[in-house]
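Model the whole thing, not chain by chain.
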Amino acid sequence: MTLLSPDFAEELKEFSDDSALACFNCGTCVAICPLIDAHFPRRMIRYVQIGARERILENATELWKCLHCGLCTQTCPREANPGEILLGLKRLIVNHWRKKA
Amino acid sequence: MDDNLNRNVDAIVIGGGIAGLQAALDLADQGFSVAVIEKDASVGGKMIRLSKVFPTLDCASCITTPKMAAAAHHERITLYTYCDLKSLQRVDGSVRADVIQRPRYVDAQKCIGCRKCEFTCPVMVADQEQGGFSPTKAIAIPFSNAIPQIAVLDPEHCMLCGRCERVCPTQAVDYFQKPRPFTVTARTAVITTGFEMTGMTDKPQYGRGTIPNLIDALQMERLLAPHGPYNRVLRPSDGKAPDSIAYIQCAGSRDISMGLSYCSRVCCMYAIKQAMLLSGSLPLADITIYYMDIRAFGKGYEQFFQNAQAMGINFVRAKVAAVEAGPDGSVRLHYEAQDGEGVTTSDHDLAVLSLGLIPAWHPDGICTLATGTDRFIEVLRPKLAPVQTSMAGVFTAGAASGPKDIVDTITEAGNAAMAAGRYLAAQPGSTPRPAETRADIEATVHIDG
Amino acid sequence: MYHPRDIIDTIAGNLRTTRNPFGIPHFLVNRWWRKANLPRRGDAMLFTGLMYQFIPYIETSTGYLAKYEESPLARYLRYARYAPGYLSGLGLAMITPSREKQNFDRILRDIVRILKASQVDLYYRPELDRYSGILLYDLGDQETFVAHARWLANRLKRAGVRKLITVDPHTTYALKELFPKYTGTSFDVHPYFELLRLNGHTIQRTVTLHDPCFYGRYLGLSDVPARALAGLGITCVEVDRSGAFTHCCGGPAESISPKLAGEVGRRRLAQLEATGAPIVAMCPICLANLRKLGADVQDLSSVMVQGI
Amino acid sequence: MTQDKKNDNATAPRIGVYICHCGGNISDHVDVDAVRRQIERMPGVAVARTNMFMCSDPGQAAIAEDLQNGTVDRVVVASCAPSLHEATFRNAIRRAGANPYIYEHVNIREQVSWVHHGETATAKAADLVAAAAAKAGLLKPLTPIRVPATRHATVIGGGVAGLSAARDLAARGIPVALVEKSSYLGGQLARLDRIAPTGERATDLVRELAGAVLEHPDIAVYTDTQVVGCDGYIGNFKLTLRRQAADALIGAQADDIPPAGIRPTGPSAAERQETALETGAIILATGFRSYQPRRGEYGFGEYAPVLTLPALIEKMARQAHQGPLLQIDGRPIRSVAMIHCVGSRQIPGIHTEDEEGRLNEYCSRTCCTATLNAADRIRREHPGTRVYELYRDIRTYGRGQEDLYEQAARNGVVFLRFEPDQEPRVTAADPDDGFALKIQVTDTLTFGETLDVPADLVVLATGMEPNDVSDLVEMMKLPVGTDRFLLEVHPKLRPVEMPVGGIFVAGTCQAPFDVGETCNAAGAAAVKAAAMLTEGHVELDPFVAEVDTARCQGNGACVEACLNPGALNLVEMQIDGQTVQRARVTPALCLGCGACVAVCPTNAIDVCGMTLRQYEAMVDAIVAGPAAAETV
Amino acid sequence: MGPAIQAKENKILVLATESCAYPGADSVGQAHSSYPANVYILRVKAPVLFPERFYLDCFAKGIAGIIVMSCGEECPYDGAYHALARRLDRVYQTMKAQEIDIRRLRLTAICTVCNRAFLNEVNQMNELVQTLISAGHA
């Protein structure tokens, strides 16, 4: 993959109270998520951590699978607040679409 | 022993586990008199209850009993068991411990440890020393290698039938025994109060203690011990020999959602050790350890981990998110397999929660010792004086000041004995009593109940 | 799965122009109170947020969405915002069966009955009872949500409303947590079951209470309805996942992927059915989604009303 | 039953046998009186008695009375397991004024009445008592061995472990010689900056410790000095110290980091070129050196911006500057990649052995926290600099360390995890990237994708290796583990002891430790030495080997079999005017295992208190039983 | 097979190390498990003390079986276990030469809580001894 750009996490801060940085990639959110869907939602969180902006944009619609039920946040052992990160990403993407439009 | 339990000694050691025993021995060997206050009916702490210990796979009993016996027989050590510490205070340059010895309902001086009472007692109770898997009696010696070998009556379950009293050859059973308050005065103290495990119900996603074949690591220690409840490893619900066993790491550590942010330091190694012992006793069983980071940091630990991998033990990097009862008594684990599979469930015949370590004792209401945000005893200078607490002349060692493995605990206990010895030496008018002959040292058994 | 952008834009557009996410005129949606005979003044204003009222319309629209989700027509929906026809506005109102509407309207009337039985001094002003905008918050359209929330908060403030009685978890969360944060206006918000003092004849029965995420987890309120039920002699059986660890009913996925809503809902239903006792929900979305999966689910108010 | 079995021969042993009922525990299954009747007819048995509880005061009093009035001079008690009451009866005998080693214990409870029932139990008990009586007849009074000990300890190594141990011992009133090879005190700690997780300055800690040592009147500090000779044994070592030019030693520093620490300015204790030192105990605190990467290992030596962690720490401390970007050697660093486990956790078949074919398979324990500490500090002080950590497992096991890990993550350190068989590759970056280097890593956290990490600086988290102490190992016969660290006797039973009595080990010469753990190890070693030296003598069990020079032919088989080198030696002596070689035991070194006994062709060596003859007598008695013994 | 052992010579000798096997045997007693009464346990510091002839003498004297219960690899005397194992190998050679059934001498490791292993060892040895005795009578 091309160069990493961790500045993306800074960009996200505008849309979310929580950054993805606290996450230590244990995968609890994935296993607890009612969706039972591959690496969701950690995949998105990981992309935020390493700043894989293009990956996020390519897969943006996936974010709306999140039901905002909050179970991942409740369960997260690092209080990284995955639910809020996803919500922040949704806002960032909506903003991105609107700006493009 | 006289009726009066009060003592004036050089050093008090609070807790008779491996840390306390080692600190007491190292203090006594320097010529200081020591009183050990232990809450259980036997000294030996958690270590005597283990099967084998990493990374040497020595039998835990074989390593612990010599130290227990050495302390029990040491001329300068007095062991007080079955005691609660009520207060620990500095008074005029000395340290005063107010202690209450709980009633065993058995006269410690008369009991000869013959277990006639235990064999006669008609009341069966679950033996917590065997993980609750097998029964013991309402009056019993705590466990086979307990020191002292004195029976303890369980008033919760005793139905006062009087059989034990009649059968006792020394008339040691005393249903009217009262708690005995006493005071030990010393010039220094060492706190070695050790740890407890987090609870099986602490993480709601792990079944709140209702999943039949989900056990904790200390229970597995008993299943693996040569003198354990079944004499072999069977799963508790139906006595089936498990074909597939899972270890769930960080089940009480590194989890802020449980209020425990710290690493419990020993769970990786004890899980690997148990896995190796299991693969010895159940050669065909699949054993999987679900982990986040393997923390094999001690001497010989990494090689031990590598050996376990070579033996075919599976290591899956994942934090188990939820556990539930599966079909046919199995235990179902939910986790994210990070190697591309993604969210996965797996069923195992038996699963072990590698619970974390929390302090066994808290100084609230007993003394002014400072504790950290992790609730373990605070050490003021973890680098240069890792055994110095916030109270002058009071030292600590072992898991009382944070999770620690046995090797680190024993070494730290030695340093606590050194620090306490230095403190004593710096006190005016302090000279350790010269030893008489070795025969003296060996010849006196100091066990005050 | 539908492209979220299309859904968001449709809803945002409707909300901006009509203050209703589906573009249905307010007088058509909010009709339940007409037979309820409610005072316009009192201590606390009942605020439904229209969630119960919307359910029949959502059912209808997603019925169409589900039909086409896996078909090439899904992509065609992209153009829906140009010709929403049967999916929003009057058209949607026309094709939604009235029997369904009556069912949900009855729930609201039941809530009023149990509140009255508890001597709650409530009042109602239908013109102030508007949608909270929560769906757009969940979908990430923060801009539209905040604009709508400010409009609503101002309207309520200007009308002198202080204390609100809510009837569903989504509206409760929006008013209690999100409004103060994003509009700067706070109200004294209580879900209706918090105010109940029911001492009617006791019903000896056992139910399975499904905690909605917003009550169980976000607001930590799962004990309150259980206590209210206990007052009527109704016991709740423990569900495998409940309280702070409750499992989503799948309903919120409805607008994006009815298929996903079904999958998640079936998982939850299995947990609820494992108890063997009748299932009770307290959120219109949960109620609708679980019912759609074939479960016989009652609303909390319908159970309680039998006790008074 | 006290009628004396009058014995004409006054020197023949008079054995008293005391059999315990244990309140029925024994007597319910063993006919205690029958045993007594059989045993009292045995030759040598002066008296046989029974008691309900031998361990009670009346039971012990009976023994004392018989000893004091001369009825008996050997004692056998048949009761419970020796672990419970052997010491009780030995003490009773001593209190009665007799030698406690004329005692033999028989276990007829745990090993008879609790495991056998009926007549066989009585018969076996009688056999065992007969065997004990047979052994008792051959017992001799013994005296514990008292070895005078020089009240002085020598600490080798002037790092944290050595300084700490020296300070501890001196505080207990024991004079200490501290021997340090280099000109500096403080060891590796002196080369660090702020240490995690407390944030203390390493130099402050070194100053405090070294200050205490230098000021203490009972500590003689020998810098630029090495131990070149060691003789003697526990309590009585003779060391030779040699002063060596400091310059010659600095070259020994493997990396390019300048030496640091406290350089004593006062007069050195080593006035002469060579010093002879008599010392009672030795503490080895020879420490570690930082792993030096091979040329080409992660680009080390090939690309200038590849540094070791100690080098980074030293440069950051020395070239401290402020600003959004970290600067190293005047270069602004926009991105740092830190690679964990360099020179640690090496796996055969994956990692490359060094020139001597060795791999460091162990974990170096401290590098994870040290790396996180550096990374976190860079992020806090230079927020414009990106930090990546490439790791296998994060091992923040200690108190406060996991919090540091979390804090570093929250401060923007990005973690990438690689498998040992997919090591990161450091290469020069494409010129367009604008960075100096590029690290290609297959990141398991990103679902096995291969990522390119841009870096202006690569930091290798190098592990610990023990300092080369082969000279001391040879000289003092020290065991070394496969990891090349010094190997303790047993990690739990005797964690700070070397097999040679009186030699202890402290700190990172034993295994990787952090500063606190090193201080614990030093204290633990010091307490053992203090306990040993407090009395001015070392008291040892009397159960050691003893040579019968009349029988010894000096063939040396015992010396070869001896498990503790030095405990047995062949010495020349004059016997009947002739110079002969005979074995001689150094009791202070003898472990009493008896390995020598088995190989002596002339039965000239035995272990006191457990002679072969005694065991043979026991076997004879077991085979024959007391009844047969009676007819002998 | 060599000289048959006699019925009266059915005693089994156990050489048990004081730090491991001897307390192990005590632990069996504490559990009140029973085992044959012809088992005689001698407490030894380290069995490496006994020369080859000691074992052979025991058999000559009429001891039916010998179990050396050591601490195994956990032996407190470094190197003693290997020296012992080598020595017993030589004893086996001599036993073979003298046609003594080599199963009558066994080296094993027993720890302080090895109740079951202890019972296995003594029961197996007892069975062997009984078999050899009945073979001798036959």
